[in-house]
Design a protein that fits this description.
mainly beta; Jelly Rolls; globular; about 45% strand
Length: about 150
């Protein structure tokens, strides 16, 4: 990221670029939508856990729950697959003004992905997690800019 953007970031730098409802209870389910990347650099993707009353900060969810959820993101410009990635095994819980959720991974926008163009994002559940869905559903997958260090 340019030094000026780091010192005085644009107002929309950390806006959500993608938010789609997805069922995580079953492998093979897909959510699809359009995203426009405006800035190069690192992005995070994950899920907002919209339901549930058990805080993610409880010991069970942080230390003892055997996380099973795995998502795959694919980015297409026209018919061309531009980038593909699968979620990490290390999930990070977060709370924000947009909601509570899990960061499933981070990625750099590849140079070949056009900026400010409509890019189709397809999110597939590679490994479902029925208990997580039952406890916290409905779930939305998201993409947003990740803070630079």
């Amino acid at each position: 990221m340019h030094t000026l953007q780091t010192l005085i970031p644009p107002a929309d730098l950390y806006d959500l670029l993608f938010k789609q409802r997805i069922g995580i209870h079953e492998t093979g389910l897909v959510a699809k939508g359009t995203v426009k990347f405006k800035y190069r650099g690192r992005y995070s993707f994950g899920i907002f856990l919209d339901g549930g009353t058990v805080p993610l900060s409880t010991r069970f969810w942080l230390k003892e729950y055997p996380w099973k959820l795995k998502l795959k993101l694919k980015f297409f410009h026209g018919d061309r697959l531009m980038h593909e990635l699968t979620s990490d095994d290390d999930l990070t819980p977060f709370g924000s003004s947009e909601g509570d959720g899990l960061i499933l991974g981070t990625f750099e926008v590849p140079e070949e992905v056009p900026m400010r163009a409509d890019v189709v994002c397809e999110c597939e559940v590679v490994h479902g997690d029925p208990m997580l869905d039952k406890t916290y559903g409905p779930v939305h997958v998201y993409i947003k800019k990740f803070p630079e260090k």
